[in-house]
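Pasting as-is:
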Amino acid sequence: MLLEIITPEKTLYKGEVSLVQLPGIDGSFEILEHHAALISVLAKGKIKVNDSKKETLFFEIKGGVIEVLKNKVLVLAE
């Protein structure tokens, strides 16, 4: 699935991934391939990403929102 992590300053990440773990306001949750459509608020914390090369990446955010639609994950982060 395609993941984009965007801040007001720049794009932190754009590429194919197999898993995204996010800090939700009610706790951590994961998005896998072909996840149902979703919009949610994110809390301060780390985003964990497993990319297509099987590498694990982490991105620190101060909050934001996520949209999942048609196997694309868009994170608008602070």
